[in-house]
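Example: Type-5 uracil-DNA glycosylase.
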Amino acid sequence: MTTPAPPPGPTTPAAPPGDPDAARSPGLALLDADVVTCRACPRLVAWREQVGRERRASFRDQEYWARPVPGFGDARARILVVGLAPAAHGANRTGRMFTGDRSGDFLFAAMHRVGLANQPTSVHADDGLRLTGIRATAPVRCAPPANKPTPDERRACAPFLAREIELVDPTVAVVLGAFGWAALLETLRDLGWDVPRPAPRFAHGAEVRVARGERTLTLLGCFHVSPQNTFTGRLTPAMLDAVLLRAQALAADAPGGR
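Written out as structure tokens, the predicted fold is:
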């Protein structure tokens, strides 16, 4: 069972579940509070709440989170994983990024294999999962219809990703898919990072380093962990492991690496 949540609405308490690391960072705690109470995009608000009311048959007895989903993981992560948006019956149900669906199963199993997670599964927000040195987030924090946010919805959500980058200060970003790649580059440019024009194109295995003053951030492209990629073999466990191991090596070599 997921952590019970009160009916979604503008007065819902800002209490994202299952992320004890956020409590260790006042800035992240404030960001999480702003994320989970956001109602800026009417289409997304209507959809996430509709899904929470109607529910999938296999989850009919569970209370859906049905609100925006904060990032999850190490508050001082050197590695940031950037996806697309919460899944309607995954994070939109459980309230934790990449939790409760097959995409998360694939991602967290890989993190566990390379030593970034304490367990290989991510079932619900209170299952004991802890991440070390890595944090998962997304450019869009609400589950979108057909898993396709509009450009305006992405722009409305961009300040949340920008604040998270500034607070966490990662040195590596593992970017899952072309949507996250484009969104992250746009956000970094808005934050004053030196992003080339035209922007580097997404590809699995792509590696791009950007800078802002003395700070550097390396983007690593990876096919998204969606079932359409993992079930067809387009993205294999070995391929994802290789990207995460490369991210670990880059993070360790960066100034102040930990």
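The chain has one domain: 22-253.
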